[in-house]
Amino acid sequence: RHDDLKEMLDSNKDSLKLEAMKRIVAMIARGKNASDLFPAVVKNVACKNIEVKKLVYVYLVRYAEEQQDLALLSISTFQRGLKDPNQLIRASALRVLSSIRVPIIVPIMMLAIKEAASDMSPYVRKTAAHAIPKLYSLDSDQKDQLIEVIEKLLADKTTLVAGSVVMAFEEVCPERIDLIHKNYRKLCNLLIDVEEWGQVVIINMLTRYARTQFLSPNQNESLLEESAEKAFYGSEEEDTKDAKAEAASLAKRKPYVMDPDHRLLLRNTKPLLQSRNAAVVMAVAQLYFHLAPKAEVGVIAKALVRLLRSHSEVQYVVLQNVATMSIKRRGMFEPYLKSFYIRSTDPTQIKILKLEVLTNLANETNISTILREFQVCHGHTGGTGGQPWHGSGMDKDFVATTIQAIGRCATNIGKVRDTCLNGLVQLLSNRDELVVAESVVVIKKLLQMQPAQHSEIIKHMAKLTDNIQVPMARASILWLIGEYCEHVPKIAPDVLRKMAKSFTNEEDIVKLQVINLAAKLYLTNSKQSKLLTQYVLNLAKYDQNYDIRDRARFIRQLIVPTEKSGALNKYAKKLFLAQKPAPILESSFKDRDHFQLGSLSHLLNAKAVGYQELPDWPDEAPDPSVRNVEVPEWTKCTSREKRKEKVEKPFYSDSEGESGPTESADS
What is the pTM of this model? Predict the structure, then answer.
């Protein structure tokens, strides 16, 4: 079949050539390899027919990088294409030229980009902006010359070029913020008319620019919050001194007035919340979150909730951002609580993110509704319904997350702690082992907050050691019994007896907790547990795992007094039975807001390659006059003066040569 395509390309008829090129481009679109046709296609780059020429350039852009030697033979033809009267051909020629990634033609590419940057057609100038990052990746030594071209293109007033040149700026010289000063207001005003992906790039760049050039609109609020915290924790004498000093500093600090350019950016991006493109809405949302005063951030909530009706990929990214925002700006999403309810059709990762958001939004007024929603989650997955649970591995993740969410709600809101604990204890009779295991781990964390009140629950959990086989859950129960053995003095030695029987068959994590339990009981109740402890330590002494052997050797020296044991033996009780702080159950999204929202780094919660840091707000505002653009002299005359001139001037000018620049401007 390729032979007849070659024949058609070699024929003298343009119609046959056009048909052949259409078939070849269709093959490429379907993912088929058409690289062996390169010599036959490249000959037609000089064809007179515009339609054939366009398709030849489409093919060449795709294969120029693979077939560099053949492409280099036709380089003079591409250079001629740069002078073609048709703007599409000029742009295509530049695109092919920048796709030939051979260092030897860097000077030719540089010259072509410079010429294209001054082209009459905005489409060609846009293509020049696209070629800049390609050349930069090929030869970074050209950076200074490329910055000159970027500076020239940034001054372009057409919407077609704006997005592409900002993208080139981000790739080549994102640190050169001085290039943006003069073009800042123009970019803000053009934003609404730029194509969608250009809008995303410009908004992200302007977010970082604004963080370096304007003062924080929430600075006074954060100062007040800090002083309130100090007043809560500090002593009374210190308070009065600090309060006076802070009052004086606040009095010296000028009342915050938003820079007009800061307001311009917020005003011009707000209409884009209605955009049909989810990426644009997300970009505006992150801009408002990072730059707007607290009172104004709320406008983005409705737009983000609207995006939750989109397909799951968009939902996933939106919920990642909402989970971060809802930690600091909880009130913003409270009216839309029902939008985050979990549907049975949602993919597991969406369900988990919705749980995260619901937990962040929980407060004393809505907690009963949220806990009911969590209970429904268990009902769907065979949780509290008591039905046998046939979930896949992913569903098990979801149930585990739901139980963790209940634990977090109980930690954050004291009045529902007992309700949550009782609910979790009920889950301990569930038929699914993983549900029980996760409940045990969460109950352990909750009991650390007030163990004295809950000795019944500890007794109930001690009975579970016969049934639960999940290592983490067994280890958690043993830790609880060991930590609070004084609350269950009759049960603890019996649990140790059972665990000593099965010691050799347990997992390593469980063995370590059995050793800990034995040590704690030896120190508090040596009469009943002395022989059991020695038996467990002897078993551990010959264990296959060296961690367990080491732990046994260390604990024997520490708790069993001998001549060699030294001074530490006196402090064994303090070491083992010291009060431990209760764990803080926090959101995994807590510290993610230092990454720019919507970026890959924010998604991964780790700095990705090429990520531009979000700068801190400056303490003092930089000079705003750097953004002032000088108006050319001939446009400065007022409209009243113009009217006078028009009246005074005769209809026919006597000497056209004498007319100044103002007259020509009027005409």
Answer: 0.75
